[in-house]
Amino acid sequence: MAGGWWLVAGGKNHGTIGQMRFLRLPLIGAGVVAGALCACGAQPDASAPAIIPSLDYSVVHTYPHDPDAFTQGLLFHDGVLYESTGRNGFSSLRRTKLETGEVLQKVDVPEMYFAEGLALTGSRLVQLTWQTQMGFVYDLATFGKIGTFDYQGEGWGLTTDGTRLIMSDGTPELRFLDAQTLKETGRITVKDDGVPVKDLNELEMIGGAVFANVWMTPRIVRIDPKTGLVTGHLDLDRLTPNAAPGKPIDVLNGIAWDAQGKRLFITGKLWPTLYEMKVEGVN
Predict the structure, then answer these.
(1) In this structure, are residues 53 and 221 in contact, taking their beta carbons and an 8 Å threshold?
(2) Fewer Cβ in 10 A, N or C end of the chain?
(3) Is 178 exposed, middle or buried (0-12, 13-18, 19+ CB in 10 A)?
(4) What is the domain class of 57-279 according to CATH?
């Protein structure tokens, strides 16, 4: 999604401590009553909200990233990064060398389109656009455009679970697309402790879960694609890259997973740095 120019900090977690009321019991029969109380207390409270873990992380390595790249989609394949960059007149598809940030291959997107999410399916790269309801399909090797497809609403993030594409659109819903026809096959609503989560941005599939940037926040949420339930929070407010001299910097956006090397990469729009990270329960 199009970026604002402010990085917004995440919210707070609130907890409650239950209170127990003690009764003075007659001596006769007190053991029976106490046993009943213990038995009741042992039963789980089905109405209590699930505790959603906050995932701990550490930075393993940093790499250069093009400070002019308005990152909208990011993925890792065969040792290199593939990136979709946005903004009208600056949108592109590019192949980038991880270690140096060098752009190895690039194709510009026509000025009328604001490029968005990116996913790899077979030998095809699939790229969304923001508000023009049009997506592009490219040959992985040549970057030649081999097709287009349309969809209703906005295009934000895109990833794949190996059989389907998974798409975000700024609403709390994730859409599922057939990987061959690119037609929608279903949707789920993403909820965090019962509350719908909107502004899901760049997506990445990792270990059977969808990881999603939440636009205008330093938070990534882990989502169960079967239920839509958020199962973890990754709060990256400690990541504070310095803008390149004379350059602006925008929000966190960009998740790539190296499935073979079990490496996780994170960056943002116009960020001069790409981070390799170790995250609790991920790698």
Answers:
(1) no
(2) C
(3) middle
(4) mainly beta
Q: What is the distance between the alpha carbons of residues 56 and 281, in angstroms, rounded to a whole number? A: 9
Q: How many CB atoms are located within 10 Å of the residue 137 CB?
A: 16
- The domains of the chain are located at 57-279
Task: Report d(CA 12, CA 279) in Å as an integer.
Answer: 20
Give whole-number Cα distances, 45 to 22, 40, 41, 49, in Å.
20, 10, 9, 9
How far from the centroid of its chain's Cα atoms is residue 234's Cα? 10
- With CA atoms as reference, report the closest residue to 271 among 202, 208, 185: 202
- AA identity, residue 79: G
Strand partners, 118: 127
pTM above 0.85, yes or no: no
> Locate tokens 């873990």: which residue?
53
SS3 of residue 30 by DSSP: helix
Quick: pLDDT tens for 48-105.
567 899 999 999 999 999 999 999 999 999 999 999 999 999 999 999 999 999 999 9
Q: Residue 134 class from Cβ within 10 Å (0-12 exposed, 13-18 middle, 19+ buried)?
A: middle
Q: Residue 108, SS3?
A: strand
DSSP 8-state assignment for residue 69: -
Q: What is the DSSP letter of 64?
A: E
Q: Tell me, what DSSP letter sits at residue 171?
A: S
Neighbours of 29 (CB within 10 A): 9
